[in-house]
Amino acid sequence: MNKKTIAIDMDGVLADFESQLLEHYNTAYGTSLTKESIQGLSEDEAFKDRDLLVKVLNKDNFFRSLPVMPDAIESVRELQKNFEIFIVSAATEFPVSLAEKVAWLAEHFPFIKWENIVLCGSKRIIKTDYLIDDHCKNLDYCIGKPIMFTAFHNINKTHHLRVNNWKEAVAVLNETL
Amino acid sequence: MNKKTIAIDMDGVLADFESQLLEHYNTAYGTSLTKESIQGLSEDEAFKDRDLLVKVLNKDNFFRSLPVMPDAIESVRELQKNFEIFIVSAATEFPVSLAEKVAWLAEHFPFIKWENIVLCGSKRIIKTDYLIDDHCKNLDYCIGKPIMFTAFHNINKTHHLRVNNWKEAVAVLNETL
């Protein structure tokens, strides 16, 4: 029988987008936002200057140098034993990020083949059994079962199954086997 | 009611990949392959030196400078009236192509938003009502109804609904309304 499929988001799930964005945005804007100070805010509320945000995200090397989330590598490798894994990132808004994301995956997740990488816009047409993502804009409209990965902007959302870290994600998914 | 969705391939469907590849491959290899001489051959049979092929496809500007297929722009615009259009290109094998494909679409198809662009590997998890593509490796495994766009490598394949050009594609799809 074919393995069940999982689509896994990159920013905020595999990659620690939040830390890197805080650092780069604070440097560019002269603010001193912290992980604590943005808890429960939307991205727009936390990073108010949208033009600056876009500029930061379009900088060479921003996505290429993102830190890996704790336990992400071992967890995805573990899940790959029993599931087919697709990496699905909403990336076409930021063209500079595209090749950087593929290179980042090749470095940190070399066991993910190019065939299983999807750089897209809307995730509405991605058909997998599960989607692990931090954004309601993706989770609310996905075809498979949504699994919400905790991030500052979703801590007050309660309408999806939540996992707080990669160990919880593996436990939840392995329970479905 | 939501519009039905169409996934449209880029190389060989929106973009005249064949002409550009013949020109670049012949220049690099000293061969004189023509559109006529490769009819009915697979890509591997037509372009025998796989390493050279990969080198050609990884060159800066190869994908950015592809000619647009005849009637493609007007046809996609016409289809957009009654369908939601997604551009779905198997591109993650060639990272250089990723940003070039987005820029190419922005130039020639500015009416396609970034949300509707998918750069992927396998198209098995793309769920649209139709897929217009030239490759059986995509058409054979797609979730929606496959529509085969004629290309040198598929002229002897008879197991999918075939369209020979963009005018035929529009006619076939508008008939489904």
UniProtKB/TrEMBL annotation, chains A, B:
Annotated signal peptide = none
Annotated Pfam families:
NT5C (PF06941)
Task: List the PANTHER family.
Answer: 5'(3')-DEOXYRIBONUCLEOTIDASE
Membership in a protein family:
Belongs to the 5'(3')-deoxyribonucleotidase family.
What domain of life is recorded for the organism? Answer: Bacteria
Among Gene3D superfamilies, the record links this protein to: Deoxyribonucleotidase, domain 2 (1.10.40.40), HAD superfamily/HAD-like (3.40.50.1000)
User: What protein am I looking at?
Assistant: 5'(3')-deoxyribonucleotidase
